[in-house]
Automatic annotation (TrEMBL):
Higher taxonomy: Bacteria, Bacillati, Actinomycetota, Actinomycetes, Micrococcales
Domain Class II aldolase/adducin N-terminal: 17-200
GO terms (BP aspect): pentose catabolic process
Biased composition (Polar residues): 228-239
Protein family per UniProt: Belongs to the aldolase class II family. AraD/FucA subfamily.
Official protein name in the record: L-ribulose-5-phosphate 4-epimerase
Length: 250
């Protein structure tokens, strides 16, 4: 029987609730059908993450049936849900958490427009300011990889390491997204589908126009470090930003 400290139990419980609730956001934004897709979240400050059970209807998902796993993707025995099989993409999520310590959440969907781009193995070009804001450039394509071992996870890490995008189109499969936490990864999945659809529609009308890379850089920097309600910080050098460009946050 696993004995987690009360403080760790509390952190696990919060992550279970967040991951369970975020699956409803995939449905809300039209990113999944049936039981496709999955969300996971790292338990902060631990070598553990929470992921959905495989093949379970979204309306049956709750904190109690999410599965607590170690970073090798093994369910932690004696914990709620451990009797079930974790998502079939657990190995991919685990690989990302092992090799990208800054990542706190991973999402996979088969959202139609992003998946259509993945089927063609074509990056989504950065032709919208919304793409520059959220992804810092194009949405890259990852290699074709068969589910069931580290192949998909390796493809995600090789493509996104050092890349500003929090989304990758795994060829012939569909999008995977990462974030500072699970909610940030879900946001990336929703924004990805929105821009994939818009660029597709634009292409029906003609060739979309690229954005100058210098403008992409300034848009990305503004959105990541100025947009919305930024945490209060002590006065700093004007123009300096508080996070390295490679770090992700919503
Ligand atoms: O892409 C695949 C299967 O190819 C999976 O991601 C399914 O879409 C969801 O599987 P579970 O998370 O329910 O096991």
């Amino acid at each position: 029987m696993n004995t987690l400290t009360p403080e760790l139990e509390e952190r696990v419980a919060r992550t279970r609730q967040e991951v369970a609730d975020l699956h409803a956001e995939l449905v809300r934004y039209g990113l999944v059908v049936w039981t496709a897709g999955n969300v996971s979240g790292r338990v902060p400050g631990t070598d553990l993450f929470v992921i959905k059970p495989s093949g379970v209807s979204y309306d049956e998902l709750g904190p109690e049936n999410q599965i607590l796993c170690d970073l090798d993707g093994r369910p932690v025995s004696g914990t709620p849900g451990a009797e079930r099989s974790p998502s079939s993409d657990t190995a991919a999520h685990a690989y990302v958490y092992r090799h990208m310590p800054e990542v706190g959440g991973v999402v996979h969907t088969h959202s139609p427009y992003a998946t259509a781009w993945a089927a063609r193995g074509e990056p989504v070009p950065c032709v919208l300011t919304a793409m520059a804001d959220e992804f810092g450039g194009e949405i890259p394509v990852g290699p074709f990889a068969i589910i069931g071992d580290d192949s998909i996870g390796r493809g995600i890490v090789e493509t996104l390491s050092g890349h500003r995008s929090r989304a990758v189109l795994m060829r012939n499969h569909g999008p995977f997204t990462i974030g500072k936490d699970a909610r940030d990864a879900v946001k990336a999945a929703a924004m990805l589908e929105d821009v994939a659809r818009t660029v597709h529609l634009s292409r029906q009308l003609g060739e979309p126009l690229p954005i100058d890379p210098s403008h992409v850089d300034s848009l990305f920097d503004r959105y990541q470090n100025v947009y919305g309600q930024q945490p209060a910080t002590t006065p700093s050098t004007p123009g300096a930003h508080s996070l390295e460009p490679s770090q992700h946050h919503s």
